[in-house]
Amino acid sequence: MVNGLPVRVKYCDTCMLYRPPRCSHCSICNNCVERFDHHCPWVGQCVGLRNYRYFFCFVFSATLLCMYVFAMSALYIKILMDDHQCTVWKAMRKSPASVILMSYCFISLWFVGGLTGFHLYLISTNQTTYENFRYRADNRINVYDRGCLNNFLEVFCTTVKPSRNDFRAIVQEESQRSPMPTTTRDSEADDRGDNRRMKVEDDLDIGGDLLKISQRHNIDIEANIHSRDSDAPRHNISEADDVLGSDRRVPDVRSDTRHSSWGRRSGSWEIGTEGSYAISKE
């Protein structure tokens, strides 16, 4: 809660900690920075809670310096004009360094002066550069705004908090942890896992065998159907005999079959050779 309003706290996967409000992770420094403003390439570090006032003083002093050098160069040219009773062009010819400094400071003043004005606006509204550019289009309520005067006092008159990270500390080597002793429950769980794995493998083997048997059974039935179509007397064989006999023979070999005595008055019957029918003996 900030000023009576809820603020969402995020978790940083890189630093593995919950970031405080207004804290953001800098991809260049690879650290989470409190009250993150921006990463400044000119000073080579992030601008945040502990160094924001010094950064503003640096930018503001650079603006004053440009204004001072520009004004002193112009004043020197004015003095040359009064001393030699000459025009501006002649005075500038006598002091080319003043012209160069005036040009340099005039160009630099647009950058550092604009940056100073922008940060004055951010301080007066208690914002950061990151928040201004990211949440400006969302029209969010600024829960950190405490008034213009209090915002300036918060930035310049509060004590600087110590860093949460001691970067100069000596890294301590981690002690090697002893392996956890295995308990009876763990061993029982491993045994159960092995038994289940073996059971699954047995089930897979049985399933493969059943699949092969069913495929062979289907092939036998198709072979019997084709043999019925090609040989008319084969229609007298019962379907039960074909199904039972198909389990005991392969598709290429046909077992001997016993034919009934329908249409015969008397006589003895014998089983013929493979591929032949029974012959009666009168």
From TrEMBL:
Organism (species): Penstemon smallii
Transmembrane segments: 52-77, 98-122
Enzyme Commission no: 2.3.1.225
Membrane topology value: Multi-pass membrane protein
Localization of this protein: Endomembrane system
Name of the protein described by the UniProt record: S-acyltransferase
Basic and acidic residues bias (residue ranges): 185-199, 224-238, 245-259
Source species, domain of life: Eukaryota
Family: Belongs to the DHHC palmitoyltransferase family.
